[in-house]
TrEMBL record, chains A, B:
Residues 144-259 form the GFO/IDH/MocA-like oxidoreductase domain. InterPro entries: Gfo/Idh/MocA-like_OxRdtase_N, GFO_IDH_MocA-like_dom, NAD(P)-bd_dom_sf. Residues 6-125 form the Gfo/Idh/MocA-like oxidoreductase N-terminal domain. PANTHER family: OS10G0403700 PROTEIN, PTHR46368. It comes from the Eukaryota. Belongs to the Gfo/Idh/MocA family. This is Gfo/Idh/MocA-like oxidoreductase N-terminal domain-containing protein. One of its GO terms (molecular function) is nucleotide binding. It comes from Protea cynaroides.
Amino acid sequence: MAETPVRFGILGCAEIARKVSRAITVSPNSTLYAVGSRSLEKAKKFAAENGFPLSAKIYGSYEAVLDDPDVDAVYVPLPTSLHIQWAVLAAEKKKHLLLEKPVALNVAEFDRIIEACEANGVQCMDGTMWMHHPREAKMKEFLSDSQRFGQLKSIHSIFYSAGDEDFLKNDIRVKADLDSLGALGDLGWYCIRSILWAADYELPKIVTALPGTVINEAGVILACGSSLQWEDGKTSTFHCSFLYNMTMDITVVGTKGTLHVHDFVIPQEEKIASFSAASRTGFTEFVTGWVPLPFKHVVTTDLSQEACMVSEFSRLVRSINDGGSKPEIKWPTISRKTQLLIDAVKESIDKGLEPIQVEA
Amino acid sequence: MAETPVRFGILGCAEIARKVSRAITVSPNSTLYAVGSRSLEKAKKFAAENGFPLSAKIYGSYEAVLDDPDVDAVYVPLPTSLHIQWAVLAAEKKKHLLLEKPVALNVAEFDRIIEACEANGVQCMDGTMWMHHPREAKMKEFLSDSQRFGQLKSIHSIFYSAGDEDFLKNDIRVKADLDSLGALGDLGWYCIRSILWAADYELPKIVTALPGTVINEAGVILACGSSLQWEDGKTSTFHCSFLYNMTMDITVVGTKGTLHVHDFVIPQEEKIASFSAASRTGFTEFVTGWVPLPFKHVVTTDLSQEACMVSEFSRLVRSINDGGSKPEIKWPTISRKTQLLIDAVKESIDKGLEPIQVEA
């Protein structure tokens, strides 16, 4: 007995919504049901170009999507400054929420979104796709192996993306009124998430932004970084920028092992992804060489990571709507921790690189 | 007409001297000629075990090596605290100097070594082997390519090495009286060198140590890191530690390209080494994948990187002794810059992570 697919409504016609629309189409338990834009014409065009069925509802406003009783869940790729308004309203209309990152402008805003979701019994999940790639579980398996990896000690993450002239002038991610967190919210989000992920979501104690923040004329961050320190002596750094060639690395080192991945946010290929793991790495003093050599792990997937994300989200939605389950608290919890650290980095930058105590 | 090989004297029987002795044996223009230790027995054993010819001179002191008129050059792998005494004396005895890193405890000491070398017309080169691997030139070619790499923006380097209980208790590199710079001098040296190398030896303007320095009971650094900032906005971080699984990375990112190398200090294999280069990396928003993919560059070498180093050093020595050339100033210049930044990181750590202005 096939389950009814979760019917998605899309709020807005952002570029990223094209990728997620494709993922919804591809996911067996999900279907494109509605799209709303402030411009009906844009919504029509978007639906026609992105595989919406002919029966799909095309609305000239976001409200109309939320008022449609047949919409089970909404995907919200709106500019970050609009998240609180539309995410809270969606939750109040009992729509499950797949929310683009950064989830809010700050953790206080996100707390209002979480409250609305809890009060209305709806699932909240952010759009961090790589968390849903099967590679994630394989990497975590290595990091959790006390024999091969040992105790976690150090995490470094970078995410750069070379914005062209048009991006740096016109993209919503460099506009103070739309996405004031800039590269920190867009790229740093992934770095911070990868650091929390490696640390089993244990929050660091102190966050200190690195020197060298780049800020545009509107006051939006174009490049920044931070060091993070935990109670037990673990340390981490990350660096993000809209100004350099696309690079996306996680390096995680323990007492006995090292993990490298160079395409953690977006795998180089859709159906196959890899990472490198080294254990008890040594070399002889006498000749040049390593013993043992690092090992390349390859993970294949039938579904793209974004389709895996949509499928997992829809599985939770079905389980709440049909099975009476409670929403999975893991997802909003890690969204909140990520946002909390973004806030701390921003505060450190604003205070001239002062160390910031992280308080959950 | 074959040139006379440069006759090396080795001061002391350090573990690393075994590797360099092998490199001298393998290098066509170099020969093992003498070894001196405070213990004649140790020197005899060392010579017997490390391929010294039967005719080699075995001395019961370092002085005796320096007093042998047939020694052209000395290799000095002594504890860092002894460098100034023996390197200066070697130069005064007209011996060319292959000096292990860190070259001194601080730049003031190294300046005295440089002065002695200049006054006596002898070559000074430090023992940073990877600089002499043919891979170095290939990587530099990529970084210098304005089309493929663009303008240098960001450099990250890490070097970890997991010291066992014996190392952390007894190695000279954790002893305050022998190698007080600890992991900074031993491992951080390579990180700093790689950063300077990527930046064409342009010194940063400001050095700020990262939070999280680990220091042993004797006050020696076991783990530390730093951020570095240049006048033009380039930034860099490095991190080094004796406490984590062996890891040695350089990540260099420009406006158009990215270079990754994971075995920069010691290649994974003796005769073949690689690095990854990516240019104008992008991805489509619609499907998952990168265009173009990074490219793996493979470089082969007949001589190990340490033999390449010895050969280059001996080529310079021959050119000075036989051809009347002046010593190559490049090598002591980059040694000095590396030491200068080590001093700055140490000063920042000692001053509670204060930013330090670098003054050449």
